[in-house]
Amino acid sequence: MAADDEAAELLTAAPDPGVLAAMVTRRVAGEPLAWITGTTEFCGLTVGVHPGVYVPRWQSEALARTAADLLPARGTAIDLCTGAGAVALVLQTTRPGARVVATESDPVAAACARSNGVVVYEGDLDGPLPGDLAGKVDVLCAVAPYVPADALHLLPRDVVAHEPRAALDGGVHGMEVLIRAIGCSTRWVAPGGWLLLEAGGGQFPEVVTLFSRAGYGSVRVLEDGDGDPRAVCGRLGPGGGPVAAPA
Ligand SMILES: C[S@@+](CC[C@H](N)C(=O)[O-])C[C@H]1O[C@@H](n2cnc3c(N)ncnc32)[C@H](O)[C@@H]1O
What we know:
The protein is an alpha/beta fold. It has ten helices and nine strands. Helix content is 36%, strand content 22%. Strands 5-4-3-6-7-9-8 form a seven-stranded mixed β-sheet, with helices on both faces.
């Protein structure tokens, strides 16, 4: 965001000059603007962002909008790794008759998403989801951590210094959570339902292959507003549904 836009946001958020000065000090020290003002814009919605919670990025808006388009009016959606709940909020705002639930492992982020009106099950990936959703989900999506652990130091200095590592660190090649999300997805997604995952850098060929191997067809890469590849989307074939337990 341009400096004059940031200044305008701070001016709007500050009730008096004393508070404004304190806000500017925090921003100069590198704190995310959204932690200071308490909100950010995502797909035209105002999303509350508590200090310590990953700030939703405009680059994820393509995934959120596509997921909302694919969700039937009275369908069911899961947003794994919901953070402040921005993607879930887009889904439930666009499809108010749908059932939208989310998961999040960080209690601070889970509380933030709940304050934004999102139903959050706290825990690891799909672990805390209610079993009645198995095989019934029309859209499962996630903006999960996908930065390679050995590339975290290349992120902007303020991001490294302030945003939670658990929100960014995707482990080896940045693929660890993505691989788990694809693997667990077929337990939840209904035949004909959709999986959408954000990814980055050189991950797309591998993610597309993993989607296909897991049973997803119509696999395509979604671009963000800059025209850069940003997410993978696929539809589960008729043989989808719960994966048989290994013998
Ligand atoms: C990149 S942030 C994205 C947050 C949100 N989806 C968004 O787009 O703003 C990833 C989020 O996943 C959460 N997370 C990381 N590992 C997780 C796991 N194994 N299970 C559930 N949530 C996880 C982090 O705490 C963080 O809030």
